[in-house]
Write a structure and sequence with these properties.
single chain, 362 residues, mainly alpha, 70% helix
Amino acid sequence: MECRDIINTLAACLQVSGTDPDLAQFIQILLGVLIVTMAPLIIVILLIWVERKFAARVQDRIGPNRVGPYGLLQSVADAIKMILKEDITPAGADRLVYNLAPIISMVSVILIWAVIPFSPIHIGVDLSIGALYFVAVGSIGTLAIMMAGWSSNNKYALLGAFRVVAQLVSYEVPMVFALLVPVLIAGSMSMQGIVEAQRGMWFVVLSPLAALIFFISTQAETGRAPFDLLEAESELVAGFNIEYSGMKFGLFMAGEFVHVFTNALLIAALFFGGWVGPGVDQIPALGFVYVTLKATIFYLFSLLLRSTLPRVRIDQLMSFNWKFLVPVSIVNVIVVAFLLQVVRALGLAPAADLANDFIANL
């Protein structure tokens, strides 16, 4: 039985042992949900350590080195510290919205993991509209930040939330247009189908411009440097989360780290073949190694940008998006779609199909 059928095997064993089929199915679904939910929460501990060590190396420092070997347990210690801190709700704040915002922020990122293909046989749910699901669920995080800024009853938090509307929503436009390119080439909105279509050639070779636009847009979506205007300390003190403390603040921070790595996974899946690599057909578990390695490279590159680039002004950020990224992404989609239609209408060989896609991006 296939590797992904470990949970299915357990459900089958429960049914054979006389367990009610509905209960067995419920247990099967529950285990799948727990795996998808717990994986990001565990990984975030390592992501925080990697970022702090990487930033320290760039800045000629040592970084965390006290708690555990090489400081590996520093994130665990910080999490315990945040849990033990006093939970304060500002006077005049909308308590319900204020408390829901950090939860929604974290959940919106975790939900994306349900459609990320980690190998030919390891995926939470292979939705036929996986790409659309990613766009829809990913935008919920913007709503969470807006909720946090509005409900805090603080002018700096509210101003930071307004910047969310200007920045994150704006950069979703070129991101969606860039996402359309692999969807058009693969002829599928399924994330697994898009990865499968890259067995012959990665889509970054066919459409490097779309890959670049998608990467820039995801950097802005996560609010990382040089696009970290949501929490610009020199202008907004701490931004939308200024009134949050304890584990509520920790959820926002953890959500940001997981979101960056999630975007790295999506870039790997959409443009760099995802789990595609040598020996995957014989050993499907290798796909997990390939996609994780590719995502780690993009994650480290994102950290390098954050550690080296200065913050841009809000007017520069918006001008770059609406005057450059959006027009270029629209033209890119139109040209790729036109050439794909022409090539397929003429019945040309797949090689000609690939060549035309590449020419469209020159």
